[in-house]
Write a structure and sequence with these properties.
mainly alpha; two-stranded antiparallel sheet; globular; disordered N terminus; carboxylic acid transmembrane transporter activity; MFS_dom; Major facilitator superfamily (MFS) profile domain-containing protein; membrane; transmembrane
């Protein structure tokens, strides 16, 4: 038998056929497991929504306990609302590199541990001698460190979820859907739960125990982080990472930049505008409601309407809650669900963590800037005591939304099913065309099988490894 005819065949050429064969052989249980892996990777983003959403109610409660003047002294209130974004940016950038060079699972487990630890310490914040300034300073520090863990989830958890979404057990028509449900929808769910928790705790403890309300509201953020940590213990690295990562190879950053800078800039700019609009409106929702209700003394009224806004539901305040809720909901309907999807599936596996982390970090810069710009924006439109002042940010947000839609339409290409596989193949060809040796790409266990022999029908190997007919 001529070994040249049936010799070593590069399995890369047969990848589509192998994929189809694996998919057809999967049982229902294996398909469910494939979907569950997407959620195991992405669900931890619930902590992002919860941690950012809860601080609005916590600030409202702190104002009631200690007085708004003392909380706002030295900008404590604004710093407390925005500092988590600074930590998130650090987490996104640092864990973006770790995700690509150390591993997705390492990043996800580390992120879970950081979130659980500092969510607990946030709830335990205390100043020396019981001083308010010391307590707020510790709370701010813990929120910054908590932000690092939240930020780490984006280039580790979300990226892993996107890679899991193209596994054989996932229907091609549902790849993007499962990713959106497991990532951004979890953030939104976190915001909703963050609106409910302080209200329920207030019903339990009442006006005389508001300290318990805000501390437990922060401390309960430990629970989802620990549950997801246990869920992820037995996970392995995604198959795409095993095959196409550059964990053991030098990353040619200049070649990467030349190929992807336009899409990276467009996605980053759009994400900046989106977070600039969405996060401030979410963080200030309790304060906005407080003003719209005329400074109602009842926390039940303020926190209750905050829940309605997060859910969208039914006077003046009722109509405002509906429109405000719709305003936030439409933001999640389109860009909220699709920005992470675009960031994860526009880049190759080799640098996906860093690409996603950088784009998301620029987005969080938008959230940070928006949080600081929100109060001056209200003042510039006439102040918080006027209708013009309170509606001004909505006009700004609407205008920026139109601008971001134009950027997406003209500068970001549409996604396709199995687009990550196609992009990885195109990226390899691009590198090889520019003289880069791609043989070191992938993990050792994957690269060892990158080129292997297969047995054609009616043929088997003899002891020397050659093929002969049977």
């Amino acid at each position: 038998m001529d070994p040249k005819k049936y010799g070593n065949l590069n399995l890369t050429l047969l990848e589509p056929f192998k994929y189809l064969a694996r998919k057809m052989s999967l049982t229902l249980k294996e398909r469910i497991r494939s979907v569950s892996l997407i959620f195991a990777c992405g669900t931890a983003l619930f902590s992002d929504g919860y941690s950012n959403g809860i601080i609005s109610a916590v600030n409202t409660i702190l104002n009631r306990i200690y007085g708004a003047d003392r909380i706002e002294a030295h900008n404590y209130g604004t710093i407390l609302r925005s500092v988590v974004f600074a930590g998130t940016i650090v987490g996104m950038l640092s864990f973006g590199w770790l995700s690509d060079k150390v591993g997705r699972k390492f990043g996800m487990m580390s992120a879970n541990a950081i979130v659980a630890l500092f969510a607990g310490l946030s709830a335990a914040s205390k100043g020396a001698g019981g001083e308010l300034g010391g307590m707020l300073s510790m709370l701010i520090a813990m929120r910054f460190l908590l932000g690092i863990g939240i930020g780490a989830e984006y280039p580790c958890g979300s990226v892993s979820a996107s890679e899991q979404s193209e596994e054989p057990g996932i229907s091609k028509r549902a790849q993007h859907r499962w990713f959106a449900l497991a990532t951004n929808t979890m953030i939104d769910f976190g915001f909703v739960i963050a609106a409910f928790v302080p209200l329920v705790l207030f019903w339990i403890f009442g006006d005389n125990h508001l300290r318990a309300v805000w501390r437990l509201s922060l401390g309960l953020g430990v629970v989802p982080a620990l549950l997801v940590f246990l869920w992820r213990l037995n996970m392995d690295e995604p198959e795409r990472f095993k095959k196409d990562s550059m964990k053991h190879a030098r990353i040619p950053y200049w070649l990467v930049f030349k190929r992807y800078w336009v899409s990276l800039a467009a996605i980053s700019f759009t994400w900046f505008l989106y977070d600039f609009i969405v996060y401030p409106f979410g963080l200030y929702s309790s304060i906005i409601v407080d003003r719209v209700t005329g400074g109602n003394d009842s926390l039940t009224v303020v926190l209750g309407w905050n829940v309605v806004i997060k859910l969208t539901g039914p006077g003046h305040i009722g109509a405002f809650a509906v429109v405000y809720g719709i305003f936030l909901s439409f933001g999640e309907l389109g860009p909220g669900n699709c920005l992470g999807l675009l960031a994860s599936k526009t880049s190759p596996t080799a640098v996906r963590g860093q690409f996603y982390g950088l784009a998301a970090a620029i987005g969080k810069v938008g959230a940070f800037v928006g949080t600081w710009a929100f109060p001056p924006m209200i003042d510039a439109f006439g102040g918080s005591d006027t209708d013009k002042g309170n509606t001004g940010p909505f006009w700004v947000g609407s205008g920026l939304a139109i601008l971001s839609a134009l950027v997406v339409f003209f500068f970001i290409r549409p996604l396709t099913t199995d687009g990550m596989i196609e992009e990885d193949e195109a990226f390899r060809r691009y590198l090889e065309e520019h003289g880069y040796d791609t043989s070191a790409m992938g993990l050792s266990s994957a690269t060892s099988t990158a080129v292997e022999t297969i047995e054609p029908e009616g043929v088997e190997k003899d002891k020397t490894g050659s093929f002969e007919k049977v």
